[in-house]
Amino acid sequence: MLIFRIAFRNILRQKRRSLLTGLSMTGGYMLLVFSFSLLEGSWGNIIDIFTLDNVGHIQIHKDDYLDRPKIYKSIQDRGQVESVLTDNDEVRSFTPRVFSPALAYAGDKTAPSRMIGVDADSEPTVSRLLQKVAEGAYFSKLPNPDGYYEAMIGRGIAITLKLKVGDEIVLISSGADGSIANDIFVVSAVIGNKTSFDRMAVYLPLSAAQEFLSLGNDVHEYALLVNDKNDNEAVAARLAEQLPFLTVSPWQEVESTFYRTMQSDKQGNYFTMGLIVFIVFVGVLNTVLMSVLERTREFGVLRAIGSRPMQLVRLITLETFMLSFISVVVGFFLVLPIIYWFTEVGMLIPEPVDMSGIEFQHMKGEFSTRVFWTPMAFVLATAVLISIPPGIRAARILPKEAMGSH
Amino acid sequence: MTNVIETRDLCRTFGSEETEVTALDHVSIDIEEGEFTAIIGPSGSGKTTLLHLIGGLDEPNGGSVMLSGSNIANMSGNELSDFRRDHIGFIFQAYNLIPVLSAEENIEYIMLLQGVNAAERKKRVREMLAMVELEGLGDRRPAHLSGGQQQRVAVARAMASNPDIILADEPTANLDSKTGISLLEVMRDLNQKRNMTFVFSTHDEKIMERATRLIHLRDGKVELDERK
Closest approach of chain A CAs to the CA of B114, in angstroms? Predict the structure, then answer.
């Protein structure tokens, strides 16, 4: 196509200038991709930590249990819920849970705790509870030969009550029917460390917790993981249609404060990225304007022989777009291995970060199509936008005056 | 014969107040289809200004220009562009070819603007190059062509869109005598074979000798209009 040839040859007309302009766009694109990967990767890691640690990608509750948890707000029709979740190909795994505050005591010491009843088999498919066992062994869902159920306790409880694996712990709470709930459990494991979110938690096998709280077969929550974590909100919306009598919440609602904080931080970073693009494109604008100025006579000729003003705008836009496209393609191939390394290996953090008992030593990026395409689309769109003013300038050139210029 | 160009009381001034210069002063001329007309006169007599006004490259301060029955003052910017593209071919003193395009592509470009399909464009480019005797040089860019060859490409470009009128501003001024004559023969031949209207602004006696009509301008006014 002749118009593409004209545009391409005009780019090559001032090779050094085009090269420098292209390099600035390549550098800008690479910086954007790296920043975007770092931003998404960092937040992605944090999201993975708490979603895979405990929250899950989606949670299902009865009514407003999430905001106002009450022991009686329980999910009763578990068969239907589990049937819907099992039949849904987008759901990777799910697990039921019950919760209740409880007073824990051992010997002459007491501590407030959060009792969490989990299904011993399915919980590890949704959370890292199994990996967080710091001492002892993951509990059995069945009572021991003496008839006692096992409990796994947070590090905070273990310290406060001076408990170790094999000791007994007594929990006192109130049942769903208003009765006093109390029972003895045997500590099978200590979970996480002093900074874990569940340092004051006591985990019980689901059936033991249901029995303890007189809940029958009811549960308070289903936590689930989906196959595509970036699609969790859409999956939640579809599940909500299938389970209209329950409240289906993506993690963005479950952890709404965190989500808002993350969004604010991202916006701040997007602003910084926008600033990078602005600085790069001020230079590009200057180049394009210079190019238009130098070719005033030619534009005058093109107008004289019948080019419409808009056709000149299109030509300038095409030239800028082609230069920026070549630049980002070059940038893409240069930054691809860097981002791959950044995602697979990551940068070593001087001080490892402990998140709920899991230690992170590397800062990692995100390697996904959006990490590359979003900055690419941004750079190309900006290139098109930035070329419009010089294009308009070219379009306004008066043939008679332009052809008198040199 | 029908008039393809009609100017009525055409006026054009440049500058303002004390510095005002009258380039054209109530010029009224009719040019018929197929005429080979030379507008002649001393420097500053208004030849180029008249050509620019006829071609719609400049706007008059007064009067009108009718081309093939259309008043170009009533045309919008795009309509005027389209009119120039389809009805007027320009040949400039400085050739004004697009430097990044080869000779073929310079000729092809205007047909691209007209929406002519690729096969037809290629065919017409070959015809035009043959007509101006530049076969085999189509792939050369202007920088690799002599002045005469460049002006031949400019003629071919002006002809490529099949215009009614060719406006040529001092087309031989930068050419040596032999090249100028050769080019003029090409244009005269086209004029006779295709009945295309040519209007030159010139000082060149070779053009004056071949022109069928001479319009003498002096101080922006028509001094003499003679048909041979």
Answer: 9
